[in-house]
């Protein structure tokens, strides 16, 4: 039997990259898919690519009212959310000399505030047995020059996963983090070759992750195979942050 058969999944930030890969994998495993993107055309294009009656919803992850409306769309169709993936994120470089208030607030609005109020919006639709995956990063426990704000947001995500586990496990809802290392997405493809090489060189496995590999980890955490895993961080980084 497909691992997500008869499950209803909402992927916030599911139109591109890792989010889209997760949505495609969950759909292949039998889930009913709803994805959000800030741009309606991106959401619709991704839903068409996924097929299987996937639904694209235009919603800004940093706007709590948009997340409420997105969840209402899912509830109107199926009455519940079984699997929630909070993936929307922003990553722009700036060292301590160049960080501006706008840079700081935009990162925390999308990467942290979006997850907090995305989860809050979804909780009324989630029941015993529900599962949440937060898309973090191995940057949450490392120091990468010029990416301090991004790393700080991902450290906050990791911390919230622990607190939310304490708060939600008694309600039968599991929360975990999947933490990718450098991943070969469309966004990464735009990075100059010398920078890509510098990112790959310290990875023990000698290459970046494929989005499908991150999706496989998210599927595991969302499925019943991970029924006794909560508050954990699963790193998908080729060993980069582990050795």
Automatic annotation (TrEMBL):
Q: Which InterPro entries match?
A: KR_dom, NAD(P)-bd_dom_sf, SDR_fam
Q: What is its EC number?
A: 1.-.-.-
Q: Which Pfam families match?
A: adh_short_C2 (PF13561)
| EC class of the enzyme, as a word | oxidoreductase
Q: Which GO terms describe its molecular function?
A: oxidoreductase activity
What are the residue boundaries of the Ketoreductase domain, all occurrences included?
7-181
Q: Which UniProt keywords apply?
A: Oxidoreductase
Q: Belongs to which family?
A: Belongs to the short-chain dehydrogenases/reductases (SDR) family.
NCBIfam families the UniProt entry points to: PRK07231.1
Task: Name it.
Answer: SDR family oxidoreductase
- Species name for this entry? Rhizobium oryzicola
